[in-house]
Amino acid sequence: MRSINILGSTGSIGTQALQIAALHPDRFQINALTAHRQADALFAQVRAFRPGMAGLTGMKAGDVEIPEDLRFCDWRFGQDALLCAAGDVPCDDVLISVVGMVGLPAVIAARKAGRRVLLANKEALVAGGQIVMAACGDGPDGPTLIPVDSEHSAIYQCLRAANGNPYDKILLTASGGAFRDYTLEQLQNATLAQALTHPNWSMGAKITVDSASMFNKALEVIEARWLFDAAPHQIQVVIHPQSIVHSMVQFRDGAVLAQLGAPDMRVPIAYAMAYPERVETAAPRVDFAALGKCTFSDVDPVRFPAIGMAYDALRAGGAACCVLNAANEEANARFRSGGLRFTQIGTVVAETLQRIGCMPAHTIEEVYAADAAARDAARRVMEKLEQE
């Protein structure tokens, strides 16, 4: 039996983690749940799993009435609820599946309390990778951080099977998103509705747009650098439309290990929750004979400049990756609200990186300062674009 606190329990990762917990009530106990503002969804989860603590991080006490039958639970509100669930409520593991920079202090709070981190928050590693990895080395009881993203879980599994042999290259696979076959002219006129039609995965709107622009994969390049202590030249992105090969690792003798499976996030979530064991997930099995073929190709740097920006940010060091992430978040949100063309997302990020220059990222305070400066600069870039 492992006890788990889930931060972001009403999102895609959180709800699927609870599906795994429901499949194995003898293996997983839920001690805390937090959501942002999805009160009704969280109420239903609390009824089903009866955690000792629950929190609504986007609300204040009094914003919502707690139903009578749920008052057995310790209810918290605001960002303090996140840190309480991460560091104060006893558990074995903390699944961090919130979106945004709030994931970084949550990781640190969980590690200070001695909890294993199951990480499904990109921003913590992208913006504060050095800080996170300093807090998350392997301990006497095994790893203290297990990645949940399908690609990084795949790499992690391949490296665990490598018996300590050093790798030569990490191959991150990418579906290519909704626009993988679009021309540059078509991308310039792409709509939000088109961007949200991901061919393989079911994700939230922000991540689905990131997949269409390939900024999602750019962030994963940065995550891979920190998770696997990889130099930028050791990470290669490969377009794989079928999303069956979740990522690969090449070794010095030329051998390549790959992790394959149906595109279902319950598999990497369950791997992290049950590690080092494997449990049933109810995920579909791949029929390779029916699949027929798997194809691979390079990323077009003209249509999808995000990948090149990630490598540039890694080489620049300091807070450049934090700036890239913050600028992309602002541009992604503006595109979703109708204020930017799709191709202008990359323009905003590139110009923001140029404007900000070099900033340090050795502490959480420095990371937050860089994040704030980048968001301010990105908004000014977008205002300029809107006036043109």
In a few lines, what is going on in this structure?
With 388 residues, this protein is of the alpha/beta class. The chain has helices at residues 12-23, 39-49, 79-88, 103-112, 122-135, 150-160, 184-188, 192-195, 205-213, 215-227, 266-274, 288-291, 306-316, 320-336, 344-356, 364-387; strands at residues 2-7, 28-35, 53-56, 74-77, 93-96, 116-119, 145-147, 167-174, 235-239, 245-251, 256-260. The protein has a domain at 2-147: Rossmann fold.
Structure description:
The chain has 388 residues and is of the alpha/beta class. The chain has a domain at 2-147: Rossmann fold (3-Layer(aba) Sandwich). Helices cover 46% and strands 15% of the residues. It has 16 helices and eleven strands. Strands 4-3-2-1-5-6-7 form a seven-stranded parallel β-sheet, with helices on both faces. A four-stranded mixed β-sheet has the order 9-8-10-11, with helices on one face. Helix 1 packs across helix 11 (266-274). It is globular. It starts with a strand and ends with a helix. The mean pLDDT is 95.
Uncertain stretches of 5 or more adjacent residues:
none
Apparent shape: globular
What name goes with the CATH superfamily of the domain at 2-147?
Answer: NAD(P)-binding Rossmann-like Domain
SSE order, one letter for each helix or strand: EHEHEEHEHEHEHEHHHHEEEHHHHHH
The DSSP helix count reads 16
Distance between the termini: 59 Å
Described by strand count, sense and barrel closure, the largest sheet is: 7 strands, parallel
Structural class: alpha/beta
Q: What is the CATH domain class of the domain at 2-147?
A: Alpha Beta
* Tally of DSSP β-strands: 11
**What is the rounded Rg?**
20 Å
- How much strand? 5-15%
| CATH overall fold name of the domain at 2-147 | Rossmann fold
Report the average pLDDT across residues: 95
Can you name the CATH architecture of the domain at 2-147? 3-Layer(aba) Sandwich
Q: Please bin the fraction of helical residues.
A: 40-55%
User: In order across it, which strands form the biggest sheet?
Assistant: 4-3-2-1-5-6-7
